[in-house]
Design brief:
Mean pLDDT: 80
Number of helices: 31
Strand order of the largest sheet: 4-3-2-1-5
Shape: flat
Largest sheet: 5 strands, antiparallel
Low-confidence stretches: 303-316, 376-396, 1236-1249, 1309-1329
Strand content: under 5%
Number of strands: 10
Distance between the termini: 137 Å
Helix content: over 70%
Structural class: mainly alpha
Radius of gyration: 71 Å
Amino acid sequence: DLWAELGVLSGDKGRKLKQASEQQQYYRTVKDVDLWLDEVEKQLSTEDFGKDMSGVQLLQKKLNLLETDITVHQDQIDTLDRQANQFVEEKHFDSEAIQMRQKELGARYEALQIPLKSLKAKLEASYQLQKFFRDVEDEETWVKEKEPLAASKNRGKDLIGVQNLIKKHQALMSEISSHESFITTVCADGDLMISQGHFGAADIKKKTSMLSDKWEQLNERVQERKKDLDNALQVHQYYADANEAESWMKEKEAVVSSGDYGKDEDSAEALLKKHETVLTDIETFSTTITSLAESCKSSESNDSQPLPPPPPPSQPQQALVKVLYTYTARTPREISVQKGDVLTLLNSANNEWWKVELDGQQGYVPASYMKKMELPTRKDSIVNTSALLMSAPLQDTVQSRQLSINSKYDHIQRMAKERKQRLEESKKKYKLMREINELEHWITDKEALTATEEVGKDLEHVQMQKKKSDDFEKDMAINEAQLDKICVMANKLIEEEHSDAEQIHDMEESLRQHWDNLVQLVEKKKKMLEGAFQVQKFVRAVDETKSWMNEKDTALMSDDYGRDLASVQALRRRHEGLERELAALDDKVTSLGEEAVNLQKNHPESTDQIAAKQAEIVGLWEGVKHKASKRGTRLDDALKFQKFLADQRELLSWVSDMKTLISADELAKDVAGAEALQQRHRERKGEIDAQEDNFKMTALFGQGLISSGHYASEEVKECLQALSNGRSSLVGSWESRKVEFEQCMEFQVFMRDTEQTNNWVTKQEAVLAMEDIGDSLDTTEALLKKQEDFEKTMAAQEEKFKALDEAATRLIQAGNYAKDEVDARRLEILASRNNLTLHMQKKRADLEEAHLLQQFLRDAEEARGWIAEKMKIAGDEAYKDHLEGKVQQQQAFEGELLANKGRIDAVVESARELVQSGHHSPEVIGAKAKEIGDLWAELGVLSGDKGRKLKQASEQQQYYRTVKDVDLWLDEVEKQLSTEDFGKDMSGVQLLQKKLNLLETDITVHQDQIDTLDRQANQFVEEKHFDSEAIQMRQKELGARYEALQIPLKSLKAKLEASYQLQKFFRDVEDEETWVKEKEPLAASKNRGKDLIGVQNLIKKHQALMSEISSHESFITTVCADGDLMISQGHFGAADIKKKTSMLSDKWEQLNERVQERKKDLDNALQVHQYYADANEAESWMKEKEAVVSSGDYGKDEDSAEALLKKHETVLTDIETFSTTITSLAESCKSSESNDSQPLPPPPPPSQPQQALVKVLYTYTARTPREISVQKGDVLTLLNSANNEWWKVELDGQQGYVPASYMKKMELPTRKDSIVNTSALLMSAPLQDTVQSRQLSINSKYDHIQRM
């Protein structure tokens, strides 16, 4: 017992010690949490919310860390809760104390959230307050920076100064306007915080009020400054415009006071045009004067304002340049400028870079980006040269300046009008003299031509002379108008009391007299030419008529009168044409006679010539007319005789041909031939009758020739007799042949009819002789119908037999040439008819009896056939196809059997009646009836058995349809799982994986369908289906195929996963190769820059490229590491992976090598270009000093010489100090020699001149399409300045003309070899653009300057 008790006590103590140990461990953890809670509570109770924005942000960060720490300790609190609960569950000896301690700890932890949220809100409010204070301070600082600019009192020393100040002030106003939103936002934020009851509301309100006040003060000062600058601009603008106006008027005064009025018409007209342009300019300038006057009125109040004092006369004004293109500084020594800026030019010794000043900032800008501006200098030239104006005092106020300008402008206008009047008079005088001289020369030339008396030797010559005369008259008319115009001009000048009026009157009178002499000569010449033309025209007409008559006379002398009708007709037509031509000649001869009479009266000097020509033409005409009449009569007689012979021969030939045709035809052997012969014979009669008129006309024509006493009358009589005999013979032949053809026709008709009848009888006898009475109902019915048709035909043929008998009797009585043959044929036909009638009656009785038998056999055969057909349907065991239709067919089939039962009964009853009537075939009928009855009973049994099997087959078919669908699905799934396509790219692999997941889901879904089919197969076996074994075997195969899908499914899933990894690797490699390929052109570039700035920009770009490549290296490393991992895992594409990894690594190494080479190349180029930039500066400096040391000014006295010596000592000090620059250049040269051979950007070709530029002095508005409008201050491209009045220019792509006086040319910087020393010694050395040669040149120049 003691031992047992000891064991119990020991176990109890051990358990309690374990619990005490766990309790101690628990309390230790709780103590740690208590300490942490003390620290957190202390931190959350702080009153420090930050003194500035950075302090608040630091406190917020600490609070966020503390909040995170509290959240993290939630797990520890939860763990302690679980331990406390476990102590209670295990019945710890101190579980109540533990549980109480845990509740206190949890309550302290939960209580942390309240101070945490409070502190977070206070810090957020403190952050907003500090942020507001910072924003206010920033805005006050900004306002303070802008106040000196807004309060400035600088009003500029000149117009450009004021304009620059206005630009700056406009920029300041834009900046203030754009900044207003920031001020508004800050104030709005402060008001919002006040409205929300922020703890710093008082400070916020104070800050907001101060900021608003400062902002209002700034805006007020800005507006005052703007008004002040606008007033200053108005005054300075007036003085600038006034200076330009006075300069322009001085130029125009020299032009309008010129005494040159021209030496001839061209020069006078040119001066007048030039003066008109000047007048236009002066009139146009009135707008400028008006504008100045208006500006004067508005500026009078500002004229008392102090202006910058003018520079002393001995102190030259600084040159100004205008910026043509925007330029951005690239080095600290340069400055950035905008297009249109006006800069102060400090140094232009270097033709490439000019030193300029802009807003107090000095630096260099490329010379090609600027152009120099001509500054107006205030000289005494603005004082008018007029003695009257010189006496007036010149006061430098706006009002006095405007009065002086108005007076000068009026004076120029008066002088311009006077000069225009003198130029117009000079032009009119020179124009009159020129036109008088031109007309005098023309009259002298024409007098020489009209003085000759030659009128021409023939018609052509006379016509040519006459045409010249007509042309001359036209010229006379034109020049007569010119004469009148000259006289009007002369009289007008005389009336205007021109200084040379007497000379002008003498010239006019001389011209009038000369003109009248020419008119008389022209009239005389015209009359001579007209007479010669009429005579030569008559002679030409007579000669042409004679030539025509001779041609006709030759044609009439021919002895050919024709050999036949055609030749005579041709000759006659030719003669008629000749007679028509002769009629025209008659009119021509009459006309020539009348013309000869008129010519003899008007031109008696040519009477003999005209009379001889007239007599010659009349005699020739009479001979021609006589010959023509005689030949015409003879040709008429020959034509009549040839016509008669032609008609007679034609008729005789026709008679002969017709007789031959009539006698040629033989008698016909059939009706058609006989009809054709008769028809042809009648047609020939018609032809004979048709020729009757021709016979009569030919006879009458012949009688007419005989009665007229024709030279061939005997021959005509013989021809007429032959014609009459031929016609009579032809008519007799036709009549005899007609009778023969009629008898032949009658005989052939009879033979045709008898032949047809005999053939018909023979054919019908053959039909009746056939013993076929039919072996079926159709044949017997057809034979009966044929028999009835035959009997009808026989009755119709009876009339035909009678008609043949009558026709034969007529032929025999008429005495036909074949009457015996006709009689024998008639007797033969009548005997055949009687025999045919007997056969017909016997055939009729046999066919009626056969028809009854065939009707029965047909009905029986139809019934047997129908039963046999239905038995095939009832015995069909094909239960697997189209079952649904076959079940319906079976139902219809059973209904059809019931409906046809009466039909079978009717057939059996018909057989019984035939046997009872004593038919000649009772055995056949009885056997057929018994066969029908047996077949009907068998059909009923088969129909019932088929209905049962069809029901089972329908259920089987439904099962197999479902199995087939599953088979098709399995085929498709197996095909998809056996694919070798694992994707050609990453998207393709992902698509295949999605498809595989869908396929796997589909396989799982089909499990229910497989189970259903199993249950159906088992049911078929239980019901003892006729095909149950096949169904069960099919189901087992289907289940095995479904289970076998899992293996290829898992295999394909693994392969696609591997393919996805491969394609992802290939994509990464391709992306990296593309990146490398994009960077290769930059790394391999050979561009070394055209200048120092270009190289520096290229180096910056290359440094960015190197940084980008360095940061990208980690991507390359990652891709290669992925490839190596896949190779180590034995991936199926290990070979391709290794190849891709190797290629990527090689390309990466090549890119790094090229980048390093490019860096080295650009560093070398930078060194070379830096040397050239320093060398250019050194040469520019030496050129400036060379001008100083080579000066020939050594002073005019001791003081000036001493001043020059001190100045030169300063120059010497500068030259000696510059030696350090030369030394530095030499050291740079040594380090750059290895790079000097690299190509540098070529300088612009010296032979290519820059286009000249012009600046517009005054605004000009285009007045014609060829001109263009320009504004004052525009810079244009000068295209053509050959015309001193109008220059062709281009502005913004538009070309046109502008008056030259409205513009002035601008000097453009040209690139010269200014860096070459002027020393003869150095000029002889060749200049090579290499570092070494450049340094030698610099050293030589420096030595030269030191010596000088």
